[in-house]
TrEMBL record:
<dbReference type="InterPro" id="IPR019734">
    <property type="entry name" value="TPR_rpt"/>
</dbReference>
<protein>
    <submittedName>
        <fullName>Protein NPGR2</fullName>
    </submittedName>
</protein>
<dbReference type="InterPro" id="IPR043376">
    <property type="entry name" value="NPG1-like"/>
</dbReference>
<keyword id="KW-0677">Repeat</keyword>
<dbReference type="Pfam" id="PF07719">
    <property type="entry name" value="TPR_2"/>
</dbReference>
<dbReference type="InterPro" id="IPR013105">
    <property type="entry name" value="TPR_2"/>
</dbReference>
<keyword id="KW-0802">TPR repeat</keyword>
<dbReference type="InterPro" id="IPR011990">
    <property type="entry name" value="TPR-like_helical_dom_sf"/>
</dbReference>
Amino acid sequence: MRCLQSGEPLGRAVEMVPSSESVATSDCSASGHSCLGGQIGNKKPDTGNIEEAESSLRESGVLNYEEARALLGRYEYQKGNLVAALHVFEGIDIVSVTPKIKDALSKSRERRKRYSQNNDEQQMSVHAVALLLEAVFLKAKSLQVLGRFKEAAQSCKVILDIVESSLPEGLPDNFGAECKLQETLSKAVELLPELWKLADCQREAILSYRRALLHEWNLDAETIAKIQKEFALFLLYSGGEAMPPDLRSQMDGSFVPRNNIEEAILLLMILLRKVTLNRIEWDPSILDHLSFALSVSGDLMILANQLEELLPGTIHRKERFYALALCYYGAGKNVEALDLLRKLLSNREDPRHVPSLLMASKICCENFSVTKDPGVSFARMALENLDGRCNQLENLANFLLGVSLSAYSKLAISDAERVKRQSEALHTLETACKLSRMEDPVVLYHLSLEYAEQRKLDAALHYAKCIVKLEVGSNVKGWLLLSRVLSAQKRFLDAESIINAALDQTGKWDQGDLLRTKAKLQIAQGQLKSAIETYTQLLAVLQVHSKSFGSRNKLFKDKRDQIRNLEVEVWHDLAYVYISLSQWRDAEACLSKSRAIKLYSSTRCHAIGKMYEAKGLYKEALKAFRDALDIDPDHVPSLISTAMVLRHCSDQSNPAVRSFLMDALRHDRFCASAWYNLGLLHKAYGTESAFVEGAECFQAVHSLEESEPVEPFR
């Protein structure tokens, strides 16, 4: 290297290498180059490399074989001759020099100022260590470029193994700064997981990430944050499930992730905390990935807490409100979500924010009984602000407006007003259907549902068939709606055939509602024994379901609650079947099973009342119906049954009877049983006007029974 500076011939310098053959000559001939001097003439040597080499020579007084290869290989790598560089690097016997490197690193904290001149066994300098480790790193980079990823990862791992075994307690501050040793080590720590990923070795990649984060490598904050983020993304999107980390060194009570999602969430939350403490720059993608991870795991309230803890100005105030509303909505806190959206849509914030308007309308549609606001104004305002700028959002706004108007029609006082709102709901839903080119199954579903509820069954049947065809039978809701429309047309055999076809194409986990509908179709055809067998089959499926989801907490909470509610309703259905067969013990057993799952249920109280009524115990029946109304004052079957028992036990013209029946019709205008009992009440009055009103009631009953499904459409 002194010759390189002075321009003297290389002959005397190469003599310093303890080998019978010149390294430069052998490597030049192997790589197809005539001589090293010609290569040097093409490119100016790296001054930094020469300074490091001179420092090494000053310390040791000799340039050994491995160091010479390291210098020559780096020179070839810098020129872009990767094959030649790799050939040179592969000649370095890193195994033989590893003990010297480890010894030099372990004693680097207490290096002596004077170096031994013993030529038999010399102490390797830190500069020489840096040179050799850099050679290993450049070898890994060359292998990476040449597509030999696994070999590259194994080569890169050697660097970490040497340093970690030499300094198990971690690296001291400013370690190797004077000779770029720390820089090489940082690059190796960052590169190794990427190489394992390229080699499709997921387990090794995860172990490398954990090693990079758990060992003290003296990395800067930005590098650590980058590794944490890349590791979190790999855990979230790699598609494989990693073994949980072994964190036995952690203190008792510390959180230990149990799976990929939890480990990724932990990393992303650490990154957010670093942003809050101003240790790293704000990266919006961190919040995006954390939102995805917490949404998948069902921990949306944790995400809401993270959003609330962000410093003001980190994200826009409007964006924060909207994200918080999404979190509350996903966690089932719809009223809180709607309050946030109303705050965002106030005049102080942004009353024209279309996503918030659409979401507010959606929440109102889905929770009409709670919000008491159908969301019509939000949907109309969204349409006005869009003004045809986005077809997709305009389609969504029309859809939400149609659903809102459908809910709004139920608040109408007069029939004329109700019909007007229903007509407008159909019109907007049809507009949304046209805008989506009949390719949106959700829009088709609600359009078919609206036609069905207005008893326009032919149109409802047409769109229900379109749903099943469009979704290729993949959605249970489409099958159920089609079978219910057919049952409303009294085509029970066709409806049961549809359910059987759906059962053939559906996994057992999704067969609950299908089996229940099948049982009700069998009851409608008088096949009570078959219905009992179907209910028994359904209960067996639900039992397996409950055991499967019983041990999981947050992710499957909604599914578990849905299964639990369905099981309760199935026991009630079976109880009604046994009551109709006068099998009191079986009915009581079913009701006892229901009580064990859910303590308070208006339907169970109603079933108990019907059993007492069938036995002729009218006082006990009336008490049971009142218990049902205490739990749910709007329970229509209990309102009707209370009126029937009161009419049987008291004066036929008891005004309370009429009050209960009118209350039932206020909640469900399509209840044939309520109209029938109201007709009987008018008939009992005996006046001419009462006979006319009674006839109208019976005519309504006839019309409703002709189009009544075995289950409610919605």
